[in-house]
């Protein structure tokens, strides 16, 4: 779950990371009272959960009250990369003498957190890492060992930071603390500004939380409705299921991201189009499977449903029981085909067939897609 910039900055502030004076407004009528608390000139930023808003005029500047009202009104009529602007962040405009990039994310090869810092901020960090190696430094972190303030200082020294600029190391260490405390997949400041008065401030902030950890952060889970208008998406996140709405009419449930994506591709190869991506993850049980079916069937666009399961450790009879439970309760009027392979598959097949649910016993997903397409032809 990605936080809005203003929410990320509030978290950073609580951890002692300096952020600009700011106010969030939900309509142009609130601008006057907001700017009374913030010195002009100001930056006015559309709050949307996508990157690159600056490139599509999602950030404006104003040096007067009248200009701030006009710019806010204009931003709140915009759609940025498909996202409507429901609120804007107004904050003091900072003059930057230096800009840095600070970030913490997961290194997918090692599975460890990786701390990153660059003496060039506000630009594509991947480009800097590849082309300007002297300006970029990263360090993989052992979770059991952690990331100390000394290690943060050493990283800054390695990039040539001295004197008051070494204060950057304290913010880098605090950013790692935020990352760990919030079970984040990304914590980022880009840029961290050093002003003409040598003050440090996080001019932009990103914080993305692992959806699977939301049960540990009930304060964040309560904000789901501010991020997703799709009720199915909200319910899926709460249930620990990965769901993405697509623009087709064939529902898809798979036991793993790779299997689900391959299923979607095969549906298209056979002339169909998937209505969604939904994968159950590794912990399949009857309740989770029943919930998955219930969620997908809430989509009234569906013309059919394909369930593609592979269970190495998970008992497939339990998955089959969940499927049967959901179908008996919901009584779907669309064709459903299940391809199920794995642990105790014969028992699972029997349970599904006894309930009248068509089963494909081949390991090839193509056979299941062919069967489903014939049923809806």
Summarize the model shown:
The protein is α+β, with helices and mostly antiparallel strands and about 375 residues long. It is built from 13 helices and 18 strands. It has 3 domains: about 20-90, 2-Layer Sandwich (Dna Ligase, domain 1), CATH 3.30.1490.20; about 95-215, 2-Layer Sandwich (D-amino Acid Aminotransferase, Chain A, domain 1), CATH 3.30.470; about 230-375, Succinyl-CoA synthetase domains (Rossmann fold).
Keywords, please?
alpha+beta; elongated; 377 residues; D-amino Acid Aminotransferase, Chain A, domain 1; 4-stranded antiparallel sheet; Rossmann fold; Dna Ligase, domain 1; 6-stranded antiparallel sheet; 18 strands
Q: How many domains make up the 3D coordinates? A: 3
Reading off the top of the CATH hierarchy, the class of the largest domain is best stated as Alpha Beta
Residue share in β-strands: 25-35%
Task: Write out the CATH superfamily name of the largest domain.
Answer: Succinyl-CoA synthetase domains
Task: Quickly give the CATH architecture of the largest domain.
Answer: 3-Layer(aba) Sandwich
Distance between the termini: 39 Å
What does this structure look like?
By secondary structure, the protein is of the alpha+beta class. The chain folds into three domains: 21-92, ATP-grasp fold, A domain (Dna Ligase, domain 1, 2-Layer Sandwich); 96-215, ATP-grasp fold, B domain (D-amino Acid Aminotransferase, Chain A, domain 1); 230-376, 3-Layer(aba) Sandwich (Rossmann fold), CATH 3.40.50.261. Helix content is 35%, strand content 25%. The protein is built from 13 helices and 18 strands. The protein has helices at residues 5-14, 31-35, 65-75, 125-131, 149-158, 167-181, 218-221, 231-239, 257-269, 286-297, 316-330, 345-354, 365-376, and strands at residues 22-25, 42-46, 59-62, 79-80, 83-84, 88-92, 96-107, 112-118, 136-140, 184-195, 200-202, 206-209, 242-245, 250-254, 276-279, 304-311, 336-342, 359-360. Strands 7, 8, 9, 10, 11 and 12 form a six-stranded antiparallel beta sheet that branches. A four-stranded antiparallel beta sheet has the order 1-6-2-3. A hairpin with a 4-residue loop joins strand 7 and strand 8 (112-118). It is elongated. The two termini are 39 Å apart.
